Amino acid sequence: MRLTKRRRENLLALALGGVFLAGAIGNLAGAPMMIEDYARWAYPPGFNYVTGALELVTVALLARRRARRAGCLVGATVMGAAIATLLLNSEYGHAFAPAAVLLGLVLLGRRTRRNCLT
């Protein structure tokens, strides 16, 4: 079965949304390992909630085709910050996953035909 461009776009948006939803749940639940990571990276207490909220916003925007480019921008900002944090803390090997998600967001943003404002 051959997938149409729109269906591929929808599947990519769904996959990325799943990644961001999983991240949001972990951050908003305050998983002890995540709290320790944020402390080690010198983020203020509760910053995991900011990240989790931005991840939820990303999920909501990716779910609507007209808002996908905005979702890609918010998600790319979160992933860019994650990559910068990991690189600045010499955790190079952990930067590959957010870099792959960032690449997926770039591809989705380019595939999405409509601007989020139209």
Radius of gyration: 15 Å
What is the mean pLDDT? 93
β-sheet strand percentage: under 5%
Query: How far do the termini sit from each other?
Result: 32 Å
Number of helices: 5
Count the beta strands. Answer: 0
Summary, kept brief:
75% of the residues lie in helices and 0% in strands.
Q: Secondary-structure blueprint of this entry?
A:
Layout: H1 5-29, H2 32-40, H3 47-63, H4 68-88, H5 96-111
Helix pairs in contact: 1-3, 1-5, 3-4, 4-5
Give an overview of the whole structure:
- With 118 residues, the protein is mostly helical.
- The protein has one domain (5-111).
- The protein is 75% helix and 0% strand.
- The protein has helices at residues 5-29, 32-40, 47-63, 68-88, 96-111.
- Helix 3 packs antiparallel against helix 4 (68-88).
- The model has no long low-confidence stretch (mean pLDDT 93).
Key features of this structure:
118 residues, 75% helix
